[in-house]
Amino acid sequence: MSSPPRISPAAKNSPPLPEPPIxxxxxxxxxxxTLEGVFNEELFFLILSVFIGIFSGLAVVCFRLAIDWTHxxxxxPLPQTHSWRLFAVPSLAGLVVAALVLHLFPAxxxxxxxxxxxxxxxxxxxxPFRTAVGKFICAALxxxxxxxxxxxxxxLQIGAGIASALGRQxxxxxxxxxxxxxxxxxxxxxxxxxxxxxAVLFVIExxxxxxxxxxxxxxxxxxxxxxxxxRWFLGSEPLFRIPVTTFKNPTELLAYAVLGIVxxxxxxxxxxxxxxxxxxxxxxxxxxxxxxxxxAGLLVGLxxxxxxxxxxxxxxxxxxxxxxxQYTWKVLAILALLKIVASTFSxxxxxxxxxxxxxxxxxxxxxxxxGDLERIFFPxxxxxxxxxxxxxxxxxxxxxxxxxxxxxxxVLEVSGNYEIIVPVxxxxxxxxxxxxxxxxxxxxxxxxxxxxxILPSLxxxxxxxxxxxxxxxxxxxxxILNAEDYVDANARRIQDSTDSTFLVRMHPSGWSTVSxxxxxxxxxxxxxxxxxxxxxxxxxxxxxxxxxxxxxxLRYVNVYPLVPVVNRADSRHLEGVVSRDSVFTKYGSTPTxxxx
Amino acid sequence: MxxxxxxxxxxxxxxxxxxxxxxxxxxxxxxSHLVSRFTANQQALGRKLYxxxxxxxxxxxxxxAIAAFRAALTCDATNSQYQLSLSRALRDSNDPRRLDEAESxxxxxxQRAPQDAAVNLxxxxxxxxxxxxxxxxxxxxxxxxxxxxxxxxANRNKxxxxxxxxxxxxxxxxxxxxELMALATSLPPEPAAHLEAAQLFxxxxxxxxxxAQYEEVLRLDPANSSALAGAGQAAYRSGNYATAQRCLExxxxxxxxxxxSRQLLATTDLILGAxxxxxxxxxxxxxxxxxxxxxxxxxxxxxxxxxxxxxLKIPRTITASPLSSLQARWxxxxxxxxxxxxxxxxxLPDSTMDVVFQIEKxxxxxxxxxQGLDLALYLISQKREAASQ
Lengths: 596, 389
Hints:
The complex is a heterodimer of chains A (596) and B (389).
Chain A: E1 6-7, H1 41-75, H2 85-103, H3 113-121, H4 129-144, H5 152-170, H6 174-193, H7 196-208, H8 213-234, H9 253-282, H10 292-305, H11 316-323, H12 329-348, H13 356-377, H14 385-401, H15 404-415, H16 421-438, H17 443-450, E2 453-454, H18 458-463, H19 469-472, E3 480-482, H20 487-493, E4 501-505, E5 511-515, H21 516-524, H22 532-535, H23 551-557, E6 563-566, E7 574-578, H24 580-589
Helix pairs in contact in A: 1-4, 1-5, 1-6, 1-8, 2-4, 2-10, 3-6, 3-17, 4-5, 5-6, 6-7, 6-8, 7-8, 7-15, 9-12, 9-13, 9-14, 9-16, 9-17, 10-12, 11-13, 12-13, 13-14, 14-15, 14-16, 15-16, 20-21
Chain B: H1 13-58, H2 62-75, H3 80-92, H4 96-112, H5 117-130, H6 133-145, H7 152-169, H8 173-185, H9 191-203, H10 207-220, H11 225-237, H12 241-254, H13 259-274, H14 283-308, H15 322-333, H16 348-367, H17 372-388
Helix pairs in contact in B: 1-2, 2-3, 3-4, 3-5, 4-5, 5-6, 6-7, 7-8, 8-9, 9-10, 9-11, 10-11, 11-12, 11-13, 12-13, 13-17, 14-15, 14-16, 15-16, 16-17
């Protein structure tokens, strides 16, 4: 069960949050009256999801063009080496971005994933349209000028912003408006990544934070329609040209496990750097925020100027080259390290931009470096550099973003190769476990908490101990009465018992209860020659199954003194009983998992 | 500052969907226009960068060319020509780490157009660079039978010639020979094409077919001195000494500076003058040649023994040298020489020359390649041996 969203006192210091437009949302009546029975709200919402996908896809197409155009205009088409542009452009663009963020678009700092999640859980799905516009402009300028950030998370927020604006205009129910943001987020991310399955999974793992069948259809529809749009305009070329990837010998899994451990450690270093620096930079005087993105740009530019221009921007071209063995393991390791530094400073400076691409970049370089290094010591390893690069991408994704399922599917979707699924799963699992062991809070949760918000997460749900009926179940009572027996026979059976309430087995099925006093009264009223079934009230007692959550028992234990727990295969077979005392005792003895 | 929008949409679901459809169509059209303009600009920039890359390739500046082609591809990611050129530059940059990337580009292109001969040829070259005979042969064949944009026959022959050269380089002359046979049937009636094929046959040690190709060149261009020399050499190596003599004489006559041909001609003259099995010579001449060969064999044996420090006067039961055995055989055959003129001794020329050939072969093994008349006798023995097989 998800924890309810809470706002901590730290929220007082966070940037101004948008006001939820509670007053503008109405339960629609006229909307569905025209063709009632054809356009119910569920169907309408599904159709709307397609439109959200289309609009988000179109926005992401424009966003990608804007980034490319900015890059060409500011940095030129050919790779620069030792040019003044390398540090001048991101620095000056950083100044402009800072001014825009501080004066026009205060809610667009950072990635956008946690803002979308906050919109879902706190602001009734409200994301100001201004945020989407600001994200578009500033992220395009920042990424196009070379800041070490990616376009995926901004695309996610742009999609969510468009969906939110559409939902508000249409005046559908509050619940649906709330769900608009993740539907748009999936569309934006799917378009940015050209990978619908990964986008759907990521939105479920990181934005919605729980598996919900109700929204899955809409999320899938929007993701698919946005991918159709992006492929229509920008072609279906994958992000990378995947080289031949192989996995021949199962013993090589050890090599991938090592990659997972190294990736997990790198993820922790990356996450801790951000977690440490971000609040400290935010706490500096406001005037410094005008210069933070510029200084981050200067740092990125200097790294590029000194010989590593690969770390600028999203870096997909460099990942592609790494995948095809263009760098030695030393260069790959250095690039991974420099990207961690560059992306950390770009991100903590408040520059709008995403963490997806930097995560993939670091993972790719690290994967290639570890793979090449392992092959030096163990030449019998058959995995190509490209295989390790691909697996490395998933490793960082699992360790840093802590989205294990998305990480696996992302690699499969990007590579289109199921042969490497086992190495990917093994390496990602190790990375995830190392990262979770060394950093208890996932990066996006950490960021929202630093902003003073505490939101539910899928990882939190996974960790939460779920109490079940069987945990509070008492053993089968020694005395069970039979409804077909006479009252006086049943009265004789309870003479030796000390219990006050007894279970009664009804015929042909079902259960009931009778108290000692009730049975005594039936006997005194001269009903001793009647069957118990004929004198008991006709309604049957509800029964539970052992695997149900204990919450399900709460509904009955206050009404009935004993609730039977029966076998799912045979409802006449009694597994045990629960009572109010047994349930409350169990809740009282189990520590709750706090969200904050 | 708060941005608010007036609520313009009606509250009827079908009408909303109609409006959304229209809005989507409008947005689609707008983005289409934007994308097409952007794409046009990008393509123009891509063409400039591509031209830059081609110039760099021309100047063998492969790193610059690769950077330019990569940049061109960022402008027009699906352009097959850019991808092909980039992959070629990657392949030709002599950096083995770049072969993977080149192959990846080419495989992507191949998946899109498996019939494209240029892509198959480029892939074949990558495979050839990796030394994979089977893969390279497969892609060369694909290139030969694939679709060429222009001059298909010439390109196919070029691809086959390249495959032959690769096979010869990798030490697979038999595979090269079969490719050459196919090539020979599809050559245009041009001296240069046949000359190249003849030289390849030469390299594959198929001298008979090489000679046929040289003769085809000479049919088309009788004064072609390369073909004359080549034909002479091919005929010489295939044991066709009469033809070799004719061609080599013509080659030396056409190009007196051709020392190789001159030397071969001298050897050929010796062979033709020393061969006792040659047709159309009299018995007397045959006997004279046998006697001369027999005497020459003795000289060769003596020289070789001296070179190796073997005393042929010591009985062969004491020394283990094979030269002593040969000396014994020669001594045993010598008394029979006088009977060469006898009409009943039909086997005597063969048995006598057999001793000569044994001496020439063995001394070659022990003392190195022969010269002059010894070389001629040795080559005659080789020809006899080949004919008897």
